[in-house]
Design a protein that fits this description.
It contains 12 helices and 5 strands. It is α/β, with parallel strands linked by helices and about 300 residues long. It has 2 domains: about 30-220, P-loop containing nucleotide triphosphate hydrolases (Rossmann fold, 3-Layer(aba) Sandwich); about 225-310, Helicase, Ruva Protein, domain 3 (Orthogonal Bundle). Strands 2-3-4-1-5 form a 5-stranded parallel beta sheet. Strand 3, helix 6 (about 160-180) and strand 4 (about 185-190) form a beta-alpha-beta unit.
């Protein structure tokens, strides 16, 4: 690509600025797989009510490779729920991220702070015992009317010794039993190995059985077929969000070789595909190029991202 084709536009041009600002916003493309996940989350969310306490509340373990869109999918679920359910409240869905290298007490303390539970008991300088913290967090979640708890970064339990993982897994189990509120765990592919606790605990079969039966696994798989109609529709929606005209969208996503190459360089991961196409769009706008994504531009974007990170 020759340098003389670049004609940088005025960066303060209102239309250019508007388009660039739009591209900086998080883009969410609702795929059929995400639709399946949302239906599952809705079912789990409404399995319990004050008038219908189930003996065993079910949850879910959502897994997928980094950049597969797990966190975005659950956050957008909450956003869509608040926008579309008339009686929805902000408190209905509680989003929480596991802190690094924290034991159960640290995890529950952070959850408690997010729920405005004080760290220190009036009667002791050492704070609440862990089992009391679990009970207090469960009681506050129920009092606040929380219908669904979403716990992200579940793979951070890999950072901990086996005994500490056992403690946290047992704590989550107790939290569900105490609150009767479903928990959704979100982590990278392979995180279900955390439940292989046999070499760390004498009574591992009961804990593993409890977790495997309570937290069904839902996998957000990468795209792998360039001719999958759902993948083609996904690319079309991303290009729609990037603001391309109909003819330029069609010339890109209708070419099988281009789709196959895009899958290969992004490993079929939703987040990487969106990131690369957005980079290409910004590049086109900033350099005042014809509004057509080409392989040359994508290759430049790939080199840039490989240096600076996805």
């Amino acid at each position: 690509m020759e340098n003389n084709i670049y004609h940088l536009p005025n960066p303060f041009n209102p239309e250019v600025r508007r388009r660039l600002e739009s591209l900086l916003m998080e883009k969410y493309v609702h795929t059929p797989k995400n639709g399946e996940l949302w239906c599952l989350l809705e079912d789990l969310m409404f399995q319990v009510s004050p008038h219908n306490i189930k003996p065993k509340v079910m949850g879910c373990l959502i897994t997928g490779d980094p950049h597969s869109g797990k966190t975005t999918a659950v956050r957008q679920f909450k956003k869509a729920y608040l926008e579309n359910v008339p009686e929805a409240r902000e408190n209905d869905v509680f989003l929480f991220q596991i802190p690094s290298r924290a034991r159960l007490k640290g995890v529950m303390t952070k959850m408690g702070r997010q729920l405005n539970i004080p760290d220190i008991s009036p009667n002791t300088r050492h704070g609440y015992p862990t089992y009391i913290l679990v009970e207090k967090v469960a009681a506050k979640l129920w009092k606040n009317g929380v219908k669904l708890v979403i716990i992200d970064e579940f793979q951070k339990l890999f950072e901990l010794p086996g005994e500490n993982r056992i403690e946290i897994l047992s704590g989550f189990n107790d939290l569900v039993n105490e609150s009767h509120i479903p928990i959704i765990l979100v982590g990278i592919a392979g995180v279900n190995r955390i439940l292989d606790v046999g070499k760390y605990h004498n009574d591992e079969s009961n804990l593993r059985g409890t977790f495997c039966s309570r937290f069904m696994e839902f996998k957000l798989d990468a795209w792998n077929d360039p001719n999958n109609p759902q993948f083609i529709a996904f690319i079309k929606m991303v290009l729609d969000d990037c603001g391309f005209t109909t003819s330029h969208r069609i010339s890109f996503y209708s070419h099988e070789g281009t789709r196959k190459w895009l899958l290969e360089i992004t490993e079929g991961l939703t987040g990487k595909i969106i990131h690369l196409l957005k980079w290409a769009t910004r590049f086109i706008i900033r350099n005042n190029l014809p509004e057509k994504i080409t392989k040359d531009i994508l290759e430049q974007g790939l080199k840039y991202i490989q240096v600076n990170g996805w």
